[in-house]
Amino acid sequence: MARLREFDYEQVLDGALQLFWRGGYEATSLDGLLNEVGLSKSSFYGAFGSKHEMLLASLDRYIETVLQANIDELRRGPPREAIMRSFEKILGFQPSSKTCFLQVCAIERGGQDRLVRMRVRRGLELLEEAYRDTIVRGQEAGQFAADADARVLSTFLVANLYGLQVLGRANIAVHARTKTLATIMKALA
Amino acid sequence: MARLREFDYEQVLDGALQLFWRGGYEATSLDGLLNEVGLSKSSFYGAFGSKHEMLLASLDRYIETVLQANIDELRRGPPREAIMRSFEKILGFQPSSKTCFLQVCAIERGGQDRLVRMRVRRGLELLEEAYRDTIVRGQEAGQFAADADARVLSTFLVANLYGLQVLGRANIAVHARTKTLATIMKALA
DNA sequence: CCAATTATGGACGAAATGGTCCATAATTGA
DNA sequence: TCAATTATGGACCATTTCGTCCATAATTGG
Known about the structure:
- 2 copies of one chain form a homodimer.
- By secondary structure, chain A is an all-alpha fold.
- Chain A is 74% helix and 0% strand.
- Chain A has 9 helices and no strands.
- Chain A is elongated, with a radius of gyration of 19 Å.
- Chain A binds a DNA duplex (30 and 30 nucleotides) through helix 3.
């Protein structure tokens, strides 16, 4: 063995995630990041490889913590309420709120960066599956139309979830976005 | 009077729009931009002021050309078909396709940049109005449920339009996105 | 305690960043 | 034709960018 690392890998990763999440990839400077988390360059390059690899690691981290927590909430609660709550969170967004990191990555880098795209896709699929299972649960409980295709509806929900975040970023009034939620829920039955 | 400018202002603006549109604000370097459009720095700063002002000008330009063209199509055609066509365009997107510039700006800078946010919002509102008027036309023609609130539905359509673009960026299969369109249209009646 | 190995601090570097400045060129009204 | 004004090319600048490198520190197995 040899000298032990003095920093907490996941703590640094979480710090990087916060910065990338708020500012995006390009606008986040490595020096600023290292300064923020208090890490030297050699330690960083030794542990993470490069700024880009750090982004990928942040994205993985986001999926397995933040996104997974949202998914867990969805899977746990009563179907209709759980779905509504997932949307109500987003209705509360202000323009300066952090929208889903998957969306940030998809828009800034998804067009050119295959490794980012694969991860975003995986995250969206996890979310879609969670919605799908929740819809099926709701159908079994007689809350949603039983003849509807849960897969189609779950993709529809994911699309709406991200669309509403764009409206929030643009400062479209809360009441306008809230009324949209009713239309979305109506599509479930 | 004095010496005449040798470059075409709008042509340069269009070139800048293309670069910002494809790569985003931060990732687009001024040197690269000037090199691309063949403009000297002094001419650029004389005419446009700064990189940031150029972004704002590009955004305005986008709204009055690209977005307005989409809006015109929407307003011209038969209601149901016009709405469907506006979505079908997006279904054809590949991951590398340029998503709506309003979305790129909203996600990259909307959280921190008020001037960008105001423009994005105005663009979204123009789009929402066009959808709204188209829905009303459809209601008058008996194609859509007459008792529905066209304003709510139009916001709903805008949200879906942007949500589907995120899915496209993430390489979610075309057939999954296509099926979503049916669900969206069903909400109109 | 020594050898091997890994972590750390920070100096260093080359290139790129957005932006300024100035000498010169071109144009028009008088 | 001359004065006034604006456009242009490009040198120049400070700062920041991501990344490398190396000497030194710390740790463990033998």
